[in-house]
Structure prediction request, 298 residues.
Amino acid sequence: MDQTQVFEAERPRLVGIASRVLGDHAEAEDVVQQAWLRMDRAASGTVIENLPAWLTTVTTRLCLDRLRSRTPVPVDDADLDDLDGVDGLDDRHGLAGDPADDVALADTVGLALHVVLDRLSPRERVAFVLHDSFGFDFPTIAAVLDTSPVAARKLASRARAKVAQPRPEDRLADWEVVDAFMAAARGGDLDRLLRLLAPDASVGADDAAVLAGTPRHVAGRDEVAAFFDGSAAAAFPVLVGGRPGAAWFHRGEARVVFDFTVVDGVVHTITFRAAPDVLADVVRRDGATPTHPTRRDR
Prediction:
């Protein structure tokens, strides 16, 4: 394959890495496009011997630049030696433990939509994501971060310690989970939809909603995510019975409500409702705050 073909083959993997590091699919696509432009310039008159590795390094360093622009204080280079001699740190946080524990912890971070990751310094975040989510070894991570394997290991260990003990204020409010789910649905971000759904998630509907064209029942995380993937473009955030949800509107009137049940930061059920008494209770919102009265209230 020529370099363009290699890049296109690698693009989904690069977007996956950038999405997890940055927490934003659109920004990840932009970063990967930047990596393409750099490859195109670098390839003029030269041959990149290991193009997948080169693309991984460039994409991750571009992500690192963006993270640093969000975090102007260079806290991530300080005190790496402070981890030396901390009794049992690596064993407690998975560096010497079961790899499945790393995956479970990384998936937990995914469920929190990077709220906890935002507490990490840029280099901690990159080291943690590359190692725990994608299985990169520490010499490779060290080359990306321009540091030593020992320092890369310490960055990942320090990040894991922070992630494993999230603060109470890091938990997403129910409305944030609902809005993140709807944004992922509109954007076709299947991976994020899956992380926001409980394993036994389901969709139901009242009779009026079924008559309006919604399914009666969808069961299972994969099935629910597939149903919502790329849909709900016309839905807006609402409160229904005081609970955060979303609704389809037509000519300024709510027609079908998405009534969410959120438990411990993930969606367990979504019920489509279109009964008149339910629709009469719908209020547009901005975050958790009501913004527009219903027609009945005007």
Remarks:
- The beta strands are 197-205, 217-219, 235-240, 243-250, 253-263, 266-273, 283-286, 289-292.
- Residues 3-22 form the longest helix (20 residues).
